[in-house]
Amino acid sequence: MTVQIVIELPESAFSALRTTPDDFVKEMRLAATVKWYEMGTISQSKASEIAGISRQEFLAALSRFNISPFQVTPEELAEELARE
Q1: In b/e form, how buried is each residue of 14-43, taking b as 16+ CB within 10 angstroms?
Q2: One digit per residue, pLDDT tens: the chain, 84 residues?
Q3: What pTM value is reported for the model?
Q4: For labelling alongside 48, which of 3, 28, 54, 79 has CA 20 to 30 A away?
Q5: Would you list the domain boundaries of the chain?
Q6: What is the dihedral of CA 68, 74, 78, 81, to 10 degrees?
């Protein structure tokens, strides 16, 4: 099941970004999911589902946005290694 959401934007937004409305929507979905992933709100799997792309494509997008695919802090990693 999908839900359709309507967002009103000025027409100038598309020319400012040099994109079509369809491409703008795809980029907006991707940017939102990348940010939510970076914040730890959603997983890679859920992010790729929301963005409408494969997990591999999502990982490539993380690189494009300069976001690490690893969402573990150095402290969490040290704790994990200390347990083993």
Answers
A1: eeeeeeeeeebeeeeebeebbebbbeeebe
A2: 889 999 898 988 888 888 899 999 999 999 999 999 999 999 999 999 999 999 999 999 999 999 999 887 778 778 888 887
A3: 0.79
A4: 79
A5: 20-83
A6: 10
